[in-house]
């Protein structure tokens, strides 16, 4: 406030009060000016430029082969890194994440799932025989860990049948429940329907959200995918032991979920969820890479994410 303003205030005060009171009045107004925000009619000082962050960009030098990828903070919803993150691409066996999520949203983990003839007729990988029965949670653990097409098909068939809808409608419902706008599937396994049509489509961002939702929904099933192998026993007593399709599960700290995918149409896909701190899960999704580069792409993005939270350019 300038001297002219103070003078005007003093003159106004003198019209209603004694000269001595006016002096106190003006002094009080000056004190209020120093501690109370300016009214809209008063001139506002020019804003001070915000300080720029000096934190290094941990993703600046990341180079990946994948056509699309994302590093997604599942706590804040922030995208830390994106490369065509919303592009709709073939999912291959990442579709199995949607299948298992859909099943566990509708059925109890202990629900018995029968292996059907249709499921056993699919291309590999597969380990089951027609007529075998496993609890849903056991079948889901084996299916996700070893990317079993027969297991995924059996889960999709059983879930859709109990809802009395088609498999594609069942999967669409699960995608809609998570607001996965770029995601849909025509089968539970993600196998290519033909040389032009994939079994499932989605974006890297959608798959990050889906992977995080599955970890939250069924942490024990998700945790099984972080081990080198998984075991289960059928209702008839048959023991199954399968190997993980992700060879790098032991190299990622605090890994919560891992899922691989590969078909001719999709190329190499990978979805990971790991804990960057205490209850701070981060999802990394790679789509359209190669069979081998999906793992180096994923490793590079995980390392960059860890560097980001450490506040350094690289680890």
Task: Write a structural description.
The protein has helices at residues 3-14, 19-35, 95-106, 117-120, 136-146, 149-163, 167-177, 204-217, 219-224, 293-310, and strands at residues 68-73, 79-83, 89-90, 112-114, 133-135, 184-185, 200-202, 229-233, 239-243, 255-263, 267-275, 281-289. It has a five-stranded antiparallel β-sheet, sandwiched between helices. A three-stranded antiparallel β-sheet has the order 3-7-6. Strands 4-5 form a two-stranded antiparallel sheet. The chain starts with a helix and ends in a 5-residue tail after the last helix. The chain folds into two domains: 1-52, no CATH class; 68-310, DD-peptidase/beta-lactamase superfamily (Beta-lactamase, 3-Layer(aba) Sandwich). The chain contains ten helices and twelve strands. 38% of the residues lie in helices and 19% in strands. The protein is α+β, with helices and mostly antiparallel strands and 315 residues long.
Short synopsis of the structure:
The chain has helices at 3-14, 19-35, 95-106, 117-120, 136-146, 149-163, 167-177, 204-217, 219-224, 293-310, and strands at 68-73, 79-83, 89-90, 112-114, 133-135, 184-185, 200-202, 229-233, 239-243, 255-263, 267-275, 281-289. By secondary structure, the protein is α+β, with helices and mostly antiparallel strands.
Residues in helices, as a percent range: 25-40%
Distance between the termini: 53 Å
* Tally of DSSP β-strands: 12
Overall 3D shape? globular
The Rg value, from CA coordinates, equals 29 Å
Q: Which architecture name of the largest domain does CATH use?
A: 3-Layer(aba) Sandwich
Give the spatial strand order of the biggest sheet.
2-1-12-11-10
Uncertain runs with pLDDT below 50, 5 residues or more? 1-42
CATH topology of the largest domain: Beta-lactamase
Judged by helices, strands and strand pairing, the structural class is alpha+beta
| Whole-number total of structural domains | 2
Largest sheet: 5 strands, antiparallel
Strand/helix succession = HHEEEHEHEHHHEEHHEEEEEH
**CATH fourth-tier homologous superfamily of the largest domain:** DD-peptidase/beta-lactamase superfamily
Q: Could you tell me the strand content as a percent range?
A: 15-25%
- Supply the CATH class of the largest domain: Alpha Beta
Q: Helical stretch count?
A: 10
